[in-house]
Design a protein that fits this description.
Shape: elongated
CATH class of the largest domain: Alpha Beta
Number of strands: 8
CATH superfamily of the largest domain: Chorismate lyase-like
Order of helices and strands: HHHEEHEHEEHEHEE
Strand order of the largest sheet: 3-4-5-8-7-6
Number of helices: 7
CATH architecture of the largest domain: 3-Layer(aba) Sandwich
């Protein structure tokens, strides 16, 4: 097997250049979430590197959360699980009492000028057009979350042509399948406020009722901002939970 020349800045440590090459394979779609990464021995042979160098490069990507290791199975591209974050903050249960992922229903989808603070978050020029959505999430037909969502154009232009009724409960798989935009990680900020008349109408509560607000900025594997989202849920359903080790 002929060796491949390791690309990148020659001034960087070799293990860092290897990490950069493997990260690029994920960003460019040659390695997908759930894919097995070439083994340490395969990478040693491919690039003519020492085992310790390869391990150090993989450790960088594991520490970043891009890869995950399973004993006896190997290293894999991590599959992000974003709906699990909702269950850190809210307890959504169906009529049978089991924890359930809320149904997603898009109420409005249009193109509008992106507000200034959202344009800054999405790293698009002020005055840019974006996709604006209003979405409700329900458990057993009862609204539990009201969401505002913004997507940059033209990156998500194909999303506009999809039938709203066929989008489904989870948006990120649709972004990937229809727009080739793969969400890898997200940053969240939690605050509280009193429900406006518009929020109260969506959640079927009284105006002024306390609600929890979760602002999320979703990014791709290369760090590019892909989606801005603001979710509002009733404070009496809020229950923060985290495991500390």
């Amino acid at each position: 097997m002929s060796q491949t020349l390791l690309s990148g800045d020659a001034r960087l440590p070799i293990y860092q250049r290897l990490a950069d090459v493997l990260r690029a394979e994920v960003v460019e779609g040659r390695l997908r979430p759930g894919d097995r990464v070439p083994s340490e021995s395969e990478l040693c042979e491919r690039y003519g590197l020492a085992l310790g160098t390869v391990r150090k490069g993989l450790e960088i990507l594991v520490a970043e959360g891009l890869f995950e290791r399973f004993h006896g199975r190997g290293t894999f591209v991590r599959r992000p699980k974003f709906d699990s974050s909702l269950f850190r903050f809210f307890r959504f249960r169906g009529t049978a009492g089991a924890v359930t992922v809320p149904e997603g229903r898009i109420l409005r989808r249009t193109t509008e000028t992106v507000p200034g603070f959202i344009a800054k978050a999405l790293a698009v020029p002020e005055g840019s057009e974006g996709i604006s959505m209003s979405r409700i999430r329900l458990c057993d037909g009862e609204p539990v979350l009201a969401e505002e969502i913004w997507l940059p154009l033209p990156r998500f232009a194909d999303f506009l042509s999809l039938e709203i009724g066929k989008v489904g409960d989870l948006l990120y798989p649709v972004y990937d399948a229809e727009c080739q935009q793969l969400v890898a990680r997200a940053e969240e900020q939690l605050t509280a406020e009193r429900a406006s008349e518009a929020t109260a109408r969506l959640l079927r509560i009284e105006p002024g009722t306390p609600v929890i607000v979760i602002d999320r900025l979703a990014r791709g594997y290369d760090g590019t901002p892909l989606e801005w989202r603001r979710s509002r849920g009733r404070a009496d359903q809020f229950c923060y939970q985290i495991e500390i080790r």
